[in-house]
Amino acid sequence: MSFHCFKLRKKFIFLIHWRQSCWQSLQLSAPLLVLGLFFEALNSSCLQPSSFFYQILNLRKWHWLIEVAAATSALSQICFSAFLLLLCMTTASFQMQQCRSIVSNRSEMLQSSLAAVLLLLTISYSHRIFSIGAGLNWLGGQATLLESILVGLLGAGTCYGLHRLFKRKNWTLQLWQITLAALLEGGLIREVNHFLQYDHWFIASSLSRLSLGNYQLPGIVTASGQSILNTLLLWVGAISPGNIAADFSDDAANSVNLAAALTKNSLKDLPQPLNLHSLLGSYALLGGTSQLLALLLVVLLVGKQQQQKIAKLNIIPVFFNLNSGFLAGLPIFFNWQLLCPLLLAPLVSIWLAAAAIIFNFLPPAVYPIPNGTPALLGAFMGTDGSWRVLVFTLLLLLISMLIYYPFVKATLSRQTLKEAATFA
Asked: What is this structure's pTM?
C-alpha cells in the first residue's frame, strides 16, 4: 500500500506544495505592488476632481494637478503590470523548484518562467489600433492575481510535461518546444474566451457580473451574501492589483433613500434603510473587503518582526481601502486558518449595524462619498457627519480586531512550532 502511495505521489509531484509556490512568489513580487498602490492611493484620494482631499482642500485652482494625476495613474499601471508579470514568472519558477526529480539546474526554472511569460503575453495581446493607441493591454487593468498565478502554474506544468515526454534533448530544441506549446495553449485560451464572449481575462470579466444587488432580497440578506461572495473571491486571489471595494452608493435601494432624504431633508423614516450601501458599503469595508484594517492592526500588535514590517508598509494603502499589497505580503490567499475570521468580521459588523439602524440608534448612510475617502470616514460622511456613526465605526473596528486576534495568535503559534521542528 505504501509503495503504491509513493508511486502516486511521485507521479503527481508537480501538484504538491503549489500553495507554497504561490505564497513565495507573492511575497517576492509584493514590493512592486505596494509601490503601485501608493501611486494609486495618491491619485484616487488627492488628484482626481471627484477625490476626497481634492474636494475637501479645494484643489481646483491647481491646474497642474491634471498632469500629475495622469503621471501617477500611468506609474501605478506600470507597477501593477510589472507585478503581475513577475508574479507569473516566479510562480512558475518556484513550482518547478518543488520538482526535485526533474529540476537538476536553473535552466529548467528559467524555461518554466519563459513558458509562463509567453502564455501571459499571448492571452493579453491585442492588435495595435494606431488611432486610439491600443496595443498590448495593460495587465494591471485586466488580469487578477489568481489568473496570473494560474498562468504561472500552467507554464510550469507545460515545462514539466515536456520534460517527462522528452527527457534527453538539447537546450535549443527544448526552448522551441516550450515556445510552441506556450503559444498554442495561450491561443487556445484566447479562442475559448472569445467563444464565451469574454475579454482576454475570463475571471476578471466574470467578476463584473457578480452582484446580489440585482435581486429582490431583504437588505441584510443581500449585504451578508455579497460580503461572503466578496470574501471568497478575495481569499482565492480573484482581485485586481488596484482593487478598491465598491461603496454601493449607486445601489437602487440607496437611490430611493437618497431621494427621500433630499425631499424631507432628514434621514428618518426612509423607505429602505437596510441596503448594500447602508450596511456593507458603510460598515463592513474598513480597509477593503473583510475588514482588513482590523487584521493589519492586529498584526502590528502581535505579529512577528517581518509581518509587522509588511503591515507598516501597507498602512496608508489599507487606510484608503487598497489592501492587495497587504494580502500579497502575508500568506492570506488559500489560507484555511484565516478564512473563518475573514468571513466573520464583516458579517458581525453588518448584523450589528443593521440592529443599530432598526432600533434607531444610528441613521442609515445615504449620501454618496468622494472617491478615496479614508476607510473610517465612509459612514460618517454618508450620514452627513453624524458623530455617533463615527464612534460606532470605531467600535466595529475594535470588534473586528477581537475576532481576528485569536486566529492570528493561533497561526503564529503553528508557525513557531514548525520553525522549532525544522531547527531541532
From this structure: 0.84
